[in-house]
Amino acid sequence: MEKIFKRTTVTTALPYANGPVHIGHLAGVYVPADIYVRYLRLKKRDVLFIGGSDEHGVPITIKAKKEGVTPQDIVDRYHTIIKKSFEDLGVSFDIYSRTTSKTHYEQASEMFKTIYNKGGFIEKTSEQYYDEEAQTFLADRYITGTCPHCNSEGAYGDQCEHCGTSLNPTDLINPKSAISGSAPVMKETKHWFLPLDKHEEWLRQWILEEHKEWKTNVYGQCKSWLDMGLQPRAVSRDLDWGIPVPIEGAEGKVLYVWFDAPIGYISNTKELLPDSWEKWWKDEDTRLIHFIGKDNIVFHCIVFPAMLKAEGSFILPDNVPANEFLNLEGDKISTSRNWAVWLHEYLIDFPGKQDVLRYVLTANAPETKDNDFTWKDFQARNNNELVAIFGNFVNRALVLTQKYFDGKVPETKGLAEVDTDVFAQIVALKDKIEENLENFRFRDALKEAMNVARIGNKYLADMEPWKLAKSDMDRVATILNISLQIAANLTIAFEPFLPFSTDRLCKMMNLDKQEWESFGSSLLLTAGHQLGTPELLFEKIEDAVVEAQVQKLLDTKKANQLAAWKPNDIKPEITFDAFEKLDIRVGTVKECTKVPKADKLLCFKIDDGSGTDRTIVSGIAAHYSPEELTGKQVCFIANLAPRKLKGIESQGMILSAESSDGALKVITPSGIVTPGSEVK
After folding, report:
1. How far apart are CA 355 and CA 203, in angstroms?
2. What is the pTM of this model?
3. CATH number of the domain that 285 lies in?
């Protein structure tokens, strides 16, 4: 029998405070979590929604060093941006705090000491890279060198950004310290480890036998890790940014960020509820739910539960509904390449359209596999669903009531079978929405919620009250009453998904917020109830708007190409005598045409000063039109052996240079010269 819990603690993965939040974060974690929490609140269940910024770790220190500021400056900046972005999107945290708070330092230190005093850690001494000049041990990201796989310079000690291969610092060729530039040496250091292998037996029973209801992607990844065998994991590291390891002999060491970050869920709860936080974390009648992305599954299903179990007084998560990844325009979202739609920028570019983003991200949620966000789909879902179905139905129902009944809810004058059937369908949809929400299937739940609007839209279109108004106002009154009751039900159905729109709809209908239990009622509005002023709930998004966003991404891709570009390796050395054999001359293009059935080729007739035109075929049609080159002077190799291309004998080669974006630029003299002049 399924356990009934008195309350629910909902947490979301702590976004890393070295950059803003993007749509991948939203689709994977924060929008589904907010939908679930809003649903529980509508159900009048006791729920606490906990969030916060993850503010320790090496990437933050690297960013601070690059910018010449302190790590605290970095986290202050991004914590502020992230927190405001969530607020503006309507992510309804009960608290959104941070891991640099005093409460968090105390809670993380206390948890470490409790586990330490119980003998829950093991000590291990190992050799790590040490920068003698800077007198510090080096984290993996502070070590650079040549990648042993692709020979690229500047690979990091944990990964080569060029080929994507995961590395160990000792794999690098000619390693150097990113701090001083000197070659590091190996030096002994002592650290504390959480022996996950000692927790493997109970984790296997708890996950694989007791939580078979977990999503298949979560269950499968956990099983894979458990089947490979768990290994001890370091909980401390040599760094000066983080929470100091709170025991003697650990000077200069801090808690590893993976250990301290999830404790932020507890410390943030404690910060919000200093006198009652324990019931949300230690009472067996509390259900703990973690919303995360797939890259955090192991930490929240294996590592954090092992920490909680080792401490001994905390409940374990009941479910971890992790999502897969969201891609952008067919490419992986990348913060380092700026290939992302950043939330704070979206809110500026699309004022008042928070719910459009929430809707599209939920409709495309990567719940079982990676999914793709495109601006064209964003536009289509807004225009074809939110505007044409939801918004159209609501607007027509309110405007017709304004027209025929002065904006007052008319009284029903006898229900036909079609009227009662409409609400039978809505009650059935309520059950489907509820089942999907309870089981973390938010995409399916949204689809069923939109079906409520579809039912209303079809009902109003089929009944055609504007035609009946000429002959049967009693029937018009009933139709509009039913339509308005459906619209009122939409304020409940969409409250978890589109909170800004349901607020506006409630205002338009002069209606207080309703509880979930009222969903499906045909009596939400009483006859004679005065409605507010009808307004458009959603507006069309024009082509130019999304084209500007696509262009923004294309500009980003081009900038990345420019930044990553480097010239090809110099070809093998030749002698001066070999170079002298090349006869490079200047000619004037008299005629330029496309070569039939050859998209890449142009055919040139060139005045080379000999009195007889020279024919050259060149593969630059993708970069120039014939009109652009006719009349121009070009440089060409005059003594290249002729060869046939598409049946045309080409008597030389036109010289061009390939720029960083792959474009070919024809080499031309800086001023007009006599055709046939030799290039020396």
Report:
1. 40
2. 0.84
3. 3.40.50.620
